[in-house]
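Dear Dr. V.,

Thank you for agreeing to look over these. As mentioned in my earlier message, I'm a first-year student in the group and I'm still getting used to reading structure tokens, so any feedback on how I've presented them would be very welcome. I ran two proteins. I've put each sequence directly above its structure. The first is here:
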Amino acid sequence: MRKITAWAVTTGETGMRTQARGLARAAADLVEERTVKLAAPWRWLPPGLLRRPLAWQAHGPDRLAPPWPDLLVTCGRRSAPFSVAVRRASDGRTLTVHIQDPMRPAGDFDLVVALAHDAIRAGPRVLKTITAMHDVTAADLAIAAQQWKERLAPLGRPLVGAMIGGPTRRSAFATADAHALAESLAVIRQEGFGLAITPSRRTPRAVRAILEAAFAGDDRVFIWNVEGANPYRGILASADRLVVTGDSVSMVSEAIATGAPVEVFDLGQGRHRVFLDTLVERGVASRLGQPAGRPRARPGYDATLEVSAVVRRLLQARTGVLG
């Protein structure tokens, strides 16, 4: 049987790469990840003025050129013109799926996938989801659980995993936030939970120091020191309950997909807060320390699997190949 081919195309940002790669892998058989770059002076143009992005690409192994794939998944506003160009160059044979609001007509794509709070309206070509696409699969988690079983076992059960992010372009992760988070985690620890805490490499050193000081000498608390193998997926796979800082839509989405109860530490960051409001309203997450109490277990919600099923149906109609 013929294999479905796909390109996951972005301009290189880590979160966008994860989303495009995750959806492409869930929908296709053979996936290439490509980072598009424009030559000067075209790279300085706003995306809306990129009339010939394929002709203006910088030279390199990731250049987009025939033969075109069955599926093109792009993410982020700056990659949207490439999706439109490939759709035109392939005479519509390539199914184009764009993740995030492209800030241009949805009719330029075969499908747009946007978060519920994005301005673009749902419609025949626009699918709205409450969490983001990601590349964490059940198989990945099963492997990670085995890899980290020996290190996490001494923390005991029940186990709470805490995923810590960092500042964003629009908001800092202040020391006051770190103290408030440490206090909330200390309450959880006092309830008898073990704690496995994983900062990210963008977590400020001062934040890490506050968390380390709060749990110094406690043998039922593990805090990753940001060296060596990252325990992130091992903790995702192993924890009975998850706490995630609200600065990262991707981390929150991955936590919700596991099916473990999820609490989000609200950093009050603009669009991230609107995203969290939606999750709380839908009952798939709660705010850390909210009066309603401990979050309840629930089925996992994985928007990547939901969207990939739609994409596979579109591919089958386009190619005749049963996914």
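The second protein is here, in the same arrangement:
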Amino acid sequence: MMELRRLGRTNLQVSVLGFGGAEIGQQNIEQKSVDYLLNIALDSGINIIDTAECYGNSEELIGHAVGHRDDVFISTKCGHAEEPNDNWKPETILSGIERSLKRLKRDWLDLIQLHSCPFDLLKRGEVIDVLEKARDEGKVRFIGCSADGQAAKYAIETGRFDTLQTSFNIADQEALTLTFSLAREKDMGIIVKRPLANVVWKHKEKPGNPWLHKYWERIQKLDYGFLDSCVVPLRFALSPAAVSTVLVGSVTPKHLTRNAAYASYGALTAYRFMQIRTRWKKCGGDEWPGVG
């Protein structure tokens, strides 16, 4: 059975494993394959799907597959327009919300999140005003912020968001001490992104993608002895009590059902969790900033 956890002040019960929709859009997966994949996800007990307007045609694929269903919680993100300078204009955000509604085939969005909004713009507050306006107009049910580091901390402190989506995994543990406790005090639901650190331990040599370099370098130093599968890393990411759900992308039924099985094992024991944290501290991990 897939464990359900409360998504903060939304009072919704979401599966501890959520489906991340980036890969299906970025890898041009066919609609019939996505239909099949998402039906397997729902049959496995997953009831939360996360996407964004910048994930290729992910929103359209998800909308066609499950947009008509009321037993799935769909979250998406805004802030990625075709013209970079227009990303955070109120009219751009509002038009993005309208596009997401059409693509996802929903009368309203369950959750709309600011997607890595620059810290200075977040502090000015206009972008939050826009999301609140959309909520007041019934276009969205809840509003959230996808952020890391100080931007994530500030988003919590405003008290204006229902959820926080942030990075947390065996190679990126800053959120555990920087934001998790504070978010729990504010009764915010925490959605963990990148819980498997992009599975960088499978690369014997530094990967070609520069974005993966920090994770890979940290994994080499941490030298964990349990990286023969994703089971411990996944369970580590969902172990903190503050975490509502962790998002894992998949493009094959095999990977999806495997991760669902791993998530069904639940949180690590306190002893196992602290072993990983002790290794992190010994290697200087507390000095490593979040990768985001």
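From my reading of the second output: The radius of gyration is 18 Å. Strands lie at 4-6, 13-15, 17-20, 48-50, 73-78, 109-115, 140-146, 163-167, 189-193, 243-249. Does that match how you would interpret it?

Kind regards,
E.
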